[in-house]
Automatic annotation (TrEMBL):
Purpose of the protein: May be involved in plant defense signaling.
Region (Disordered): 1-64, 373-432
Binding site for ATP: 127
Protein name: non-specific serine/threonine protein kinase
Residue span(s) of domain Protein kinase: 88-372
Polar residues composition-biased segments: 418-432
Organism taxonomic ancestry: Eukaryota, Viridiplantae, Streptophyta, Embryophyta, Tracheophyta
Molecular function (Gene Ontology), one example: ATP binding
SUPFAM superfamilies in the cross-refs: Protein kinase-like (PK-like)
Annotated Basic and acidic residues bias: 21-30, 45-60
Biased composition (Basic residues): 401-412
């Protein structure tokens, strides 16, 4: 993913805002030893009490498909980010979430210093909302995880700012916006083809698989279409790690935590008990994959009452050809291999298993998606296309018949019916 680091993190010297309590002060002092913002409490993305201070990050395992890097992010000043976003002007807003608004800014490609619009490199600046109760905790989790991991399918964090009680994060800019925009918002975003949807699903699966198989597995906890961002070539990257949490350790199957996330995507066992499994993410992936097949939101009270919850309404139609065709996104105009769609439906059913033990791992999900992508069965033609091709074939057949008869007519000088019939009989015998 290119350069994942800027200047060395040093909160003690760069953050004029003082912690609000002695406990926060101690966290801030301890943070100097590991180059991160103060650690969150046990309800956050902490290490379950396990100290990292005696271990260098450069000694972490480096997976083949990604890497673990030292958290050397640029510390931006608030003045720099105001300059890069033209003082957070409303016309620079890219989107808004629970954490706050995201603005488009411009910085120098090498120094990350503010630059004029259209000059240098575009960036996305996430600015915390004063009304966000989770602002500080989510900000810390983002810096902790995205500052540590570098992978083609995770959005790149360039730096951060903590000043005047405001928390800001600076990311690479993703030209195509979120998957949510392409699936659900009318006007603007063009409909995604079957091939592009599979490409996005595979990219997102690669990102989740990387998190799950890192030395200390990371549970993303908020997998949904709005958190999947797309670059100019529709490569998918996971964003928003504010709710991410380290997975279970010491042989435990799960971690217990308060329930956060987005209803409709959260796994049932997590919602019911607060028990969070690595495979809780797999359930969320299944929901998003179902949205990609149908073009419908996971929850939508504007639909008929029995269709409010997409999973409950559609899951029984995913493995039968006739039923599946009825719920497929109409914007695909039937331009997809039905065999591949059926296999995708079967995969969704496995991901949505009520018991997390019965769900596939993200590595298995990724392998299945790659096999589905390899299915190159000719897509069924749309009705309009089929009608045009049928008309063209009829014209070609008529032309062929006319060309076939013309030598006979010219040879016999326009002879009568009997002569033509005799000639046809002769041709028929010659072919026998």
């Amino acid at each position: 993913m290119g350069n994942c680091f800027g200047t060395q993190v040093d909160h003690h010297s760069q953050c004029p805002t003082k912690p609000s309590s002695p406990e926060e002060t101690k966290k801030l002092q301890d943070s100097k030893q590991n180059g991160l913002p103060p650690a969150r409490n046990n309800e956050s993305a902490g290490d379950h009490g396990t100290s990292r201070e005696g271990r260098s990050r450069e000694q972490e395992t480096v997976p083949a498909s990604g890497k673990i890097v030292s958290a050397t992010l640029k510390i931006f000043t608030l003045a720099e980010l105001k300059a890069s976003t033209r003082n957070f002007r409303p016309d620079t807003v890219l989107g808004e979430g629970g954490f706050g608004r995201v603005f488009k800014g411009w910085v120098d490609e090498k120094t990350y210093a503010p630059s004029k619009v259209g000059v240098g490199m575009a960036v996305a600046v996430k600015k915390s909302s004063p009304d966000s109760s989770q602002g500080l905790q989510e900000w810390q989790a983002e810096v902790k995880f995205l500052g540590k991991f570098c992978h083609p399918n995770l959005v790149k964090l360039l730096g951060y700012c903590w000043e005047e009680n405001q928390f800001l994060l600076v990311y690479e800019y993703m030209q195509k916006g979120s998957l949510e925009n392409h699936l659900f918002r009318t006007g603007g975003a063009e409909p995604l083809t079957w091939e592009t949807r599979l490409k996005i699903a595979i990219g997102a699966a690669q990102g989740l698989a990387f998190l799950h198989t890192s030395e200390k597995s990371v549970i993303y906890r908020d997998f949904k279409a709005s958190n999947i961002l797309l670059d100019g070539a529709y490569n998918a990257k996971l964003s928003d790690f504010g709710l991410a949490k380290l997975g279970p350790i010491n042989g435990n199957s799960h971690v217990t935590t308060r329930v956060v996330g987005t209803y409709g995507y959260a796994a049932p066992e997590y919602v019911a008990t607060g028990h969070l499994y690595v495979k809780s993410d797999v359930y969320g992936f299944g929901v998003v994959l179902l949205e990609m097949l149908t073009g419908l939101r996971a929850l939508d009270t504007n639909r008929p009452s029995r269709e409010h919850n997409l999973v409950e309404w559609a899951k029984h139609s995913l493995t039968e050809k006739r039923k599946l065709k009825k719920i497929m996104d109409r914007r695909l105009v039937e331009q997809y291999p039905l065999k591949a769609a059926l296999q995708a439906g079967e995969l969704i059913v496995k991901c949505l298993e009520s018991d997390p033990k019965n769900r596939p791992s993200m590595e298995e999900v990724l392998e299945t998606l790659q096999k589905i992508s390899a299915i190159n069965e000719k897509p069924k033609e749309s009705k309009a296309s089929t009608s045009q091709q049928k008309s063209k074939r009829q014209e070609e057949q008529q032309c062929h018949r006319n060309n076939h008869r013309s030598p006979v007519h010219s040879r016999h000088g326009g002879a009568g019916t009997g002569t033509r019939n005799t000639q046809r009989s002769s041709i028929a015998r010659s072919h026998r």
